[in-house]
């Protein structure tokens, strides 16, 4: 069975029920609208509005979901243990995300956050952490278009206090 | 290029917990907003960490300070900076989670208050202590009480006074390495009852056949 998703720019995407269920947000909305996998009429007569996602971003989200629709569900760790060491970005995902300039990556991350697709969100979060990893502060600032408002004296003070962190 | 700081705060907070500690220190230097964000965010989950004095260095004990957080090492600092160190930690993260954190109290000249400040923002699944003297045992017991949700492991490199054994909270593993020639059977029985695992590494330990029988019973 298929589910209709409608983006903020009124584009309709017809996706497999399994793909729609990968988003916690869409799952909840389907439940609220009494849409069920075994009830074709409920799926045909309804569409899910997604006002926070544009057509271009939705297409990317669906591409990621198509690739991951058969993944085993990951064991959810308790809140404090999530993040950092627990997420590894697969080669396919690296390839999928590598050509996105930072602005598009942020839009995709916003969509993954809104749609509650944890795997995609974690992939992008880790990708951004990897972009930061090993870079000097001025390189990070340039990459992310950050205007530095710290004075030289403040920077010197911070450097002094963090100089102990070695490889 | 989109400004990273224009991302919603909940997203930024989630990104922050995926960063390595060293990257956090560099990100702090980019702008005031990141400096504040880092100080108010969770640093994520680290498999291991440790705090120790590597020994008494030529320049004095303070020169051998060593704190490991995952792969990041903080060490080789001037005496004057060591005193400031507990103030640095809260500026790098609000909280941090370790699977295992080891505190080596041997040669460790800092006060209980210093250690409390240093690790006050830590959540630890398994807290391990290396203890070489009675006053360090008291410190370890007080620190353990600050972490009531943690499991504990302790390695004693000396033979405490009998009454001091009673201070030690239940351990997942208690190891005692000692040169002491004798360990009363009643102490062994008591330790076996109090702790999940007991390891005695005693080169000269003398336990009579009667003592063994009692322990086995």
TrEMBL record, chain A:
The SKP1 component dimerisation domain covers which part of the protein?
A: 118-165
Sequence intervals crossing the membrane: none
GO annotation (BP), single: ubiquitin-dependent protein catabolic process
Going by the UniProt record, its keywords in alphabetical order are: Ubl conjugation pathway
**Alphabetized Pfam families for the sequence:** Skp1, Skp1_POZ
Taking every annotated instance into account, which residue ranges of this chain make up the domain SKP1 component POZ? 2-70
Q: Which family does it belong to?
A: Belongs to the SKP1 family.
Q: What is this protein's name?
A: Skp1-related protein
Q: Which organism is it from?
A: Pristionchus mayeri
TrEMBL record, chain B:
A single Pfam family it belongs to is F-box
Gene3D superfamilies, per this entry? 1.20.1280.50
Q: Where is the F-box domain?
A: 1-49
Q: Where is the signal peptide?
A: none
PROSITE patterns this protein is in? FBOX (PS50181)
Top-level taxonomy:
Eukaryota, Metazoa, Ecdysozoa, Nematoda, Chromadorea
Q: Which SUPFAM superfamilies match?
A: F-box domain
Protein's UniProt name: F-box domain-containing protein
Q: Which domain of life is it from?
A: Eukaryota
């Amino acid at each position: 069975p298929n589910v209709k998703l409608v983006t903020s720019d009124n584009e309709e995407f017809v996706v497999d029920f399994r793909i729609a269920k990968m988003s916690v947000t869409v799952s909840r909305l389907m439940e609220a609208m009494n849409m069920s996998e075994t009830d074709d009429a409920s799926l045909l007569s309804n569409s899910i509005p997604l006002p926070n996602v544009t057509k271009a971003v939705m297409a990317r989200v669906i591409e990621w979901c198509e690739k991951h629709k058969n993944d085993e569900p990951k064991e959810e760790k308790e809140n404090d243990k999530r993040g950092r060491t627990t997420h590894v970005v697969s080669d396919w995902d690296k390839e999928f995300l590598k050509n996105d300039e930072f602005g598009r990556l942020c839009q995709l991350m916003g969509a993954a956050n809104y749609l509650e697709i944890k795997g995609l969100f974690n992939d992008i979060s880790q990708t951004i952490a990897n972009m930061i990893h090993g870079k000097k502060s001025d390189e990070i600032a340039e990459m992310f278009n950050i205007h530095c408002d710290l004075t030289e004296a403040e920077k010197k003070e911070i450097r002094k206090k963090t100089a102990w962190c070695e490889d | 290029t989109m400004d990273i700081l224009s991302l919603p705060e909940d997203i930024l907070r989630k990104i922050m917990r995926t960063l390595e500690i060293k990257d956090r220190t560099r990100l702090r230097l980019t702008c005031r907003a990141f400096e504040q964000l880092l100080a108010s965010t969770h640093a994520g989950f680290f498999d291991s960490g440790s705090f120790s004095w590597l020994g008494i260095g030529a320049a004095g004990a303070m020169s051998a300070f060593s704190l490991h957080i995952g792969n990041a090492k903080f060490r080789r600092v001037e005496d004057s900076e060591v005193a400031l160190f507990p103030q640095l930690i809260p500026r790098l993260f609000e909280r941090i989670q370790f699977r295992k954190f080891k505190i080596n109290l041997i040669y460790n000249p800092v006060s209980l208050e210093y250690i409390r400040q240093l690790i006050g923002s830590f959540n630890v699944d398994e807290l391990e202590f290396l203890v070489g003297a009675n006053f360090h045992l008291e410190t370890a017991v007080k620190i353990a009480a600050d972490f009531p949700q943690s499991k504990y492991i302790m390695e004693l490199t000396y033979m405490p006074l009998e009454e001091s054994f009673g201070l030690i909270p239940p351990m997942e593993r208690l190891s005692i390495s000692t040169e002491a020639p004798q360990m009363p059977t009643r102490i062994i029985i008591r330790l076996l009852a109090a702790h999940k695992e007991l390891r005695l590494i005693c080169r000269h330990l003398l336990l009579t056949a009667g003592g063994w029988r009692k322990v086995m019973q």
